[in-house]
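Quick one: C-alpha cells for this chain, please?
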Amino acid sequence: MSTHEVDEDIQLDSDHENDDAGGLQNQPSTANEVVTLEKSEEDKWHRRDLTDKCWDVMSILNKKLRRWDQSHGDPNTPILEEYKKIGLTERDYRDPKSSSVLHLLAKNTHNYASTEAEVLELVITYLLDHREKQEPQNRVHEIIQEEPILHVALEYGNDEFIKCIMKCRPEKFPDLLDLKDGREQNFIHRIFALPDEALRNGSVLNIKRKKTKELAISFVSEAKPETLAAKDKDGNLPIHYAMDYRQCSGRDSAYIGVLRNMVLKGDEKLNANNDFNNKNESPITYCTHADGPKPPQNVSNNEVTHSATKQLAMHPESGDRVPSIQESLRRTRNSSNTPDIPHSRRTDYINSTSAAASKAMVADPPEKRPKSTKDLDHSAQELMEILRLHYIRTRTDLVARDLIYGRDISDKNLYFDASGHKGADKIIDLIERMSFGGFCDTLAYVYIPIVEHSQDKKSTATPSKKSLSINQTMDYQKALLENPKVGRNSLVTVFDKLYDCGVRRILRLQVEDRDNPSHTDAAIEKALQGRDSLSAQPEKQFRGPISVETWYVISLYSIG
C-alpha cells in the first residue's frame, strides 16, 4: 500500500472514530452548525477524484465503519451516506481503463480481493443497475470512449470480478461479452488472441494458454451466436484466434469440445463467405499461415482422431446441418438424367467404423514447425478435421473447398457424381479424369447410378460335382432355385479406384442397385472395407477401408 493510501486510511479512521465516539471538542453547538459541517464534508468529499472516492468507500466498508444497506452487516453499524453511493456512479473518461468505479474494481485485484464477496456483489449490482437506468441512447458516443469492463478485468487477471459480474447480472452478461474495444474485439476474441509478449516469451505463452483454457471453459458457453460470429478490424472471428497453432496445439478434449461448440453455435449467425478474414484466410488456413510454429497444410485423415467425425455426427441439433442427397445433387448438377428416387419401403443405412482415437496429447506448445504429417500435433489436427467436416456438411462445395484449401489455389473435388455413366469402366474413366485436380480425402457425397450388367459366363458356371460334397451340392442347387442369377461385384473396382485417388471417407453415399442381379454382400463389404472378411488371404494383400457415414441403397427390393 502506498504512503498516500496509508495516510488516507489513518485520516479516514480518525475522522470516523471521532464522529462515532462523539468527542466533545468536535461537537457542533447548534443544529445549523451540524448541517453546515455535514455539507462541508460532503463538498470536500465530492472534490476528490474518482479513484479516491472509490477506495475511500471500499475502505470504510472493509473496516465495517459503514455498511452498504440494511440487507448486510451489523444492524448497529450506520449505513453508508447516500451521496457517497451516488458519487461512485460518476465517470472520468480521461483514462479509458479507469473511467468508472467498475473499471477500478476490475483492474485493482489487491483491493478487490480484500473485500467481502457479499459486499462486492452489493456494490457491483448497484453500479450495474445505475448504468442500465442512466445510459440513454444519446450517450453511446461516451460509452465507446471507455474500455469494456470485462476486457479490463481480463487484462489485469481479475477473474473473480468477471465471475461476480456474471453472478450479479446473468441476464445481461452475454451483452457484456459482446461489447467491443477499439480493435473491434469482443471478450471472446480477447480470450484467444495472443498478446505480443506471449509471442516473444515461451513461459508467458504457456501461462496464457493455461488461462485461455480456463476462461474458455467458463465463459464461451455464455456468449451469444452473434458474439461468436463477430469480426474484429482484421476480419478475424474468435475461432480464427482459437485456431492459432500456438493456441490449439497440445490441447485436451475439454478445449476441443469448447471450440467445436463455438463453431456450431456461431454458425447460426454467419453469412455466406463470412468465414474469411481480411487476408482471405479461413480458420483452417489461418492455423497454417499464422506467424510462428505451423503444421503442414496437407493433413491426412488417417492420422486424425475418429472423435472429430463422431462428435459432429452426434450433434446435428447444434447447427450441424446435413442436407439430403437430393438437395446436394440438385445443387451441384446443372442437368441430370438420373430419375428421382422412388418411394422406398426399405432403405439401408450402413454406418462404418474407423480407427480408434489417439490417446496422447502433447502437453506443451511446439517449439518448431513439424517436419512431417507424423509430427503433427493430434489436437491441432483433430480441430482442423472438425472444421473440415463442418464446412463440407454445411457449405456449398466451392465455398467448402476454399475454406479448407484456400481461395484460388485448389481444384480438389469434394464430391463424386457419376450421373449419366452406366458402366463401371466409364465411371472409373471419369474418376481418372477428375483425379488430375485431386480428390479431398473426405467427400461430401458420392452418387453411383444404375450400372449396366453383362453376365459373366464364368460366374454362372456350375461347379464340378467332384469338387463339392453331397451337402454342398444340395446347398448350391437350393441357392440356384432361390436366385438363379448370381449377384455381381462390378462396383468393387469403382471403390478401389476412389481409394487409389486418396478417398478415405464418404459422408453420404447413394448407390442405385435396382437392376437384377443386385451386388452380393461380399462385393459390398469388399468395396467399402477393402476385403472380404471370409477371405483366407493375408490382410496385407488388401487395401484399407473407405469410411461411410450414411449409405442410401436403392435396391431391387426397395421398389417392389
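The longest strand covers residues 505-513.
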